[in-house]
User: Fold these one by one.
Assistant:
Number 1:
Amino acid sequence: MTIDYEIINVLAEAFFAGDMPEELSAYLIDRYSEEPLEGDLHPHYFFPMIRSDIKSYIKGELDVTLRTDL
């Protein structure tokens, strides 16, 4: 399972009233948009990991440095 802009839009509505910060959106696409995903992210763990990253971002605890040039 991978993330796409449709999922990003749903998450933006749920966590940011529709306006997700661009740096977080880019980070989520960079980290979760291509298989294989880092670690063993069975679909059962996919959304909890993304929610965890978003909550860490909100707390100021997430490093959103991109792994690749987008």
Number 2:
Amino acid sequence: AILQSFFPTKKFLPEFFSFSKRIATMEEVRRGTVRPSATFSGYELFAEYMALCTVFLYLIIRRARTLVAKTWWSVGMALVVLALFTTATRSAPLVLAGGMLYMVMVGDRGIPRAQQLRVLILVMLGFYLSLAFLGSFTSLMFERLSSLGADDSSVHSRTEVATAALEAISRKPLLGHGPFIPAKSFATAVGKNVHNLYLHTAYTIGLPGLAAFVWFLVVLVRTSLRHARDRTLSPRSREIGVILHVTLVMFLVDQLKIEYTRDAMTMHLAWMHFGLIMAQERVLRREQAMGPVGQENPGWTG
């Protein structure tokens, strides 16, 4: 994404890798409004992924035991945040900031609150000091953030398509309109993308399908929150639980304005994220059955 932002008209990898699915137009280059998406199909999904990766990198940095490793992953986090800002997707920094604040509120049993606040202060200070050198990357993001409101054209078009989707859902509430949404299904500026995962699910597979999916999400949220708050678990398990819970909540909030079902790669990433939470649940159950690592519980006969 950073290479695309620097050199929007060049390809650095063979077409086989699909590094750039859409080369920026010369008009965008002249205006300085190139919004890269790396190998993703759109910059919104890419920005969401960068926001989630930032939180995962925070966990990796905490787990690193050498200065070289911490420095390496810290530089990686800085590049990820920079890539996020190049997309000029307004929801991504808001979701990231909200996720970090949410972590401070619910993650104190896995990551001490004082450590979280110290990191947040250092990151904010570093970001502020770097603005003088990164203005070309961040200017479009701040310009779009300043225009965010009810009168914004993007907000207006999404409101229109959401209203149209709700009306269509009321006509076929049980079975939905099918998993494929043809172009120009909605007589609005947005012809086929509902820009809301929950409305998209209800529109395609009906309200029963939405209810089943929401029930599954509730299970994931409760399970990950339990991992983050359970004092009987090891500090490492709680720490991982905090990160998985916070990133899940961030994902679910961001899906209010996008649907991850747009392409196979983002669907794979989302369900891999869900799988990590259930994998931790299985690992913790096994550990509780066997007792401390390396010591079999006498009462366990599995």
